[in-house]
Design goal:
This protein is α/β, with parallel strands linked by helices. It has one domain: P-loop containing nucleotide triphosphate hydrolases (Rossmann fold), CATH 3.40.50. Helix content is about 30%, strand content about 25%. It contains 10 helices and 12 strands. Strands 6-7-8-3-9-10-12-11 form an 8-stranded mixed β-sheet, sandwiched between helices. The radius of gyration is 21 Å and the shape is globular.
């Protein structure tokens, strides 16, 4: 019997009204446009792509901080897409977020112990003394001292603040943590410490991660599987080794070519993409990447490619891997 994924997303969509056109007609930004993926229990699935591709919006849709405009989100086999706030409350305990900016995501007026214990106040019936004890234990768990509990957030460095944010997310023992660019605001040396901490906690608590990042070198360190997003759509998903050893989509190839190589004598051919990212308010017809793609064909400008499995566990949306299209092209 096949194991039920912890998270399953089917045809997920979200649009935002951004401006009015002629005669008062609204224009819509399609932030997430029909993406599908699943995350197995205990694994780390990463979403990567340039800024504005919709990956952070996807994280908020999965946790229902935003209401989907279409498609379905399943948590542990249960459809949570249409649940109201009261129905979502017991499920929210199971899914927590770690946000990008540790300076903005912690309340400056609250002591650290109260920040960490806040989810316990909402989701448990623990006494103040029990909450205080657990908060101090969680601070120890993430590499801080229980003595830090009485301080305020501004008294900590960026890396320490992110550890506080992780302790807060852990407090209600969730199954899923959505980490939205959790290390992008940190120094490189601190990034590796926080990533190692996340991996240790995953092993210790049996956590599942949806990890969101624009940095492919960070993603390589922590991921089991990776999904590459471009302009609201998934263009490729694969396990980590397959994606880094054999990227199929031209966009993935370009992203990987820009990752610095630690060996100064090693040479990597850099793929420079031409042009800017098109506006998600008025995306190109056909394949959305065709305006910047070095392998663009005429069919790419007219027909959107189907997201298909090319080899076990490796899916891509590109006409280069559609045999019928390639026969006609030649």
């Amino acid at each position: 019997m096949k194991e039920t994924p912890l998270i399953e997303v089917k045809g997920l969509r979200k649009s935002f009204a951004v401006q009015k056109g002629w005669l008062g007609a609204k224009k819509y930004l399609n932030a997430v446009d029909g993406i599908s993926f699943a995350i197995r229990k205990g694994e780390t699935f990463s979403l990567v792509g340039e800024s504005g591709c919709g990956k952070s919006t996807t994280g908020r849709l999965v946790t229902r901080l935003l209401k989907p405009g279409g498609g379905e989100v399943y948590f542990n086999g249960q459809d949570i897409t249409g649940l109201n706030d009261n129905q979502m409350r017991p499920i929210r305990k199971e899914m927590q977020m770690v946000f990008q900016d540790p300076y903005a995501s912690l309340n400056p007026r609250m002591k650290v112990k109260d920040i960490v214990a806040e989810p316990l106040l909402i989701h448990t019936k623990l006494s103040p003394k029990e909450r205080d004890k657990l908060a101090r234990e969680l601070l120890e768990t993430v590499g801080l001292s229980g003595l830090h509990a009485e301080r305020f957030a501004h008294e900590f460095s960026g890396g320490q603040r992110q550890r506080i944010g992780i302790a807060r997310a852990l407090s209600v023992r969730p199954s899923l943590i959505v980490a939205d660019e959790p290390v992008s605001a940190l120094d490189v040396s601190i990034q590796s410490q926080v990533l190692n901490l996340l991996q240790d906690l995953q092993e210790q608590y049996g956590l599942t991660y949806l990890f969101i990042s624009h940095d492919l070198s960070v993603v390589e360190h922590i991921s089991d599987r990776i999904g590459v997003m471009y302009l609201g759509s998934l263009v490729e998903t694969a396990d980590k080794d397959s994606l880094y050893d054999r990227p199929l989509h031209p966009y993935t190839q370009a992203l990987l070519s820009s990752v610095p190589v630690p060996d100064p004598s090693a040479k990597r051919e850099r793929i420079i993409l031409k042009g800017d990212i098109p506006s998600p308010v008025d995306p190109p017809s056909g394949c959305r990447f065709h305006t910047r793609c070095p392998a663009c064909m005429e069919v790419c400008k007219q027909i959107a490619p189907v997201f298909q499995e090319i080899e076990p566990g490796h899916q891509v949306a590109c006409h280069l891997y559609d045999e019928e299209v390639m026969k006609q092209a030649h």
